[in-house]
């Protein structure tokens, strides 16, 4: 459950690309300015939290493989296992594991996103 | 195709005059939005002695998730729903491929506001918010009772078909994400077996509802309309993205599911199984996640050069979280 694309480098490129060709309409430019400010804050958070997230994600995926008793512990293998269905008996543990990683991902991508109680 | 004011001035009077039986003089013509799938214009005209305001929606010929029926069928579905009592704009004329403007349609312009932050917060819309459950449920009931005669060109998109189509799109991006795989596996195993087949709006959510201060004036944006399970519209309305930050009020950030379901049952006579509606809320969240990926990959694959599209890719994390919460709530309800 890695961070989603675009990756940090790809986001940085998107920002640079826009700055080379800014929109001529002041209103549109102001809007894109807000998008860029949002992305720059995200990139700062990623720089600070990426290592801890990678560690938590690795542990989470190991835990998921153990819960599912999956012999294929690669991310693709785990996805194939989950997509095949038939995880009902493991669902509470699967949800608990994935929710912890999803929340850590939100701390980078969207920390103010309203969480469930 | 790129359409100009001059082309519209040339084409529209000739289209309207036979329908309205009088001479049409276009006075104003202004582009409202140039979206990825529709090019929308506001027109003011005099027909005979009467002044009219219209909206012209044209096929932008751009991006398509593979779920849109095309502008002509969109127009027919909208008009059929209006005839069945749904508050929505009357379609005045359809434009075919050879119209000179491409495919599209002309409809009456309705008054009102559609911006969610305004509708959710402005004191001016207190009355409209109070009337929301009954009026919006009434409009939805009308959509779902629309006779299907004459709508045979709309795609049939039931749960299984949408699920497979969306998962294929997700897989095509080559980013293995366990939450998407889990949601897909669960949804595949729990497809409701008692779904009816009705007209479905397909994008029934705050943002596509037009309100005046006294209440609902119209349902907008029929470009994803299709035939399918009516519970799809009830589920999509509750997808967390359309609550605009108000997670505790699942129906459009305005009310509770039970309140809206009761209003819909009263208006439609159709009972709502809350778990069935929640199934579609999860499928809707899954769909929104794939749409966010679609937008991000339109940037990553070089189709659309937009920093905004790039930013949307990182909102996928929100949809992953929402899918897990939705699944947890479904599990608790079971």
What does this structure look like?
The complex is a heterodimer of chains A (117) and B (334). Chain A is elongated. Chain A has one domain. The model of chain A has no long low-confidence stretch (mean pLDDT 94). With 117 residues, chain A is an all-alpha fold. Chain B is α+β, with helices and mostly antiparallel strands and 334 residues long. Chain B has 2 domains: 104 residues, 2-Layer Sandwich (Phosphorylase Kinase, domain 1); 218 residues, Aminoglycoside phosphotransferase (APH), C-terminal lobe (Aminoglycoside 3'-phosphotransferase, Chain: A, domain 2, Alpha-Beta Complex), CATH 3.90.1200. Chain B has 11 helices and 9 strands. The longest helix of chain B has 27 residues. Chain B is globular, with a radius of gyration of 20 Å. The model of chain B has no long low-confidence stretch (mean pLDDT 94). The chains are: A mainly alpha (117), B alpha+beta (334). Chains A and B meet through helix 1, helix 2, helix 3 and helix 4 of A and helix 6, helix 9, helix 10 and helix 11 of B.
Ranges of chain B where pLDDT stays below 50 over 5 or more residues in a row are: none
**Beta-strand content bin of chain A:** under 5%
Helix-strand string of chain A: HHHH
Number of helices of chain A: 4
The secondary-structure element order of chain B is HEEEHEEHHHHEEEEHHHHH
Mean pLDDT of chain B: 94
Shape of chain B: globular
Mean pLDDT across the residues of chain A is 94
Low-confidence stretches of chain A: none
Percent in helix of chain B: 40-55%
- Strand order across the largest sheet of chain B: 1-2-3-5-4
Radius of gyration of chain B: 20 Å
Counted by DSSP, the helix tally of chain B is 11
What's the number of extended β-strand segments of chain A? 0
Total number of distinct structural domains of chain B: 2
Main pleated-sheet profile of chain A: none
| CATH homologous superfamily label of the largest domain in chain B | Aminoglycoside phosphotransferase (APH), C-terminal lobe
Query: What's the CATH first level of the largest domain in chain B?
Result: Alpha Beta
Biggest interface and which pair forms it?
A: A-B, 49 and 41 residues
Class inferred from helices and paired strands of chain A = mainly alpha
The CATH architecture designation of the largest domain in chain B is Alpha-Beta Complex
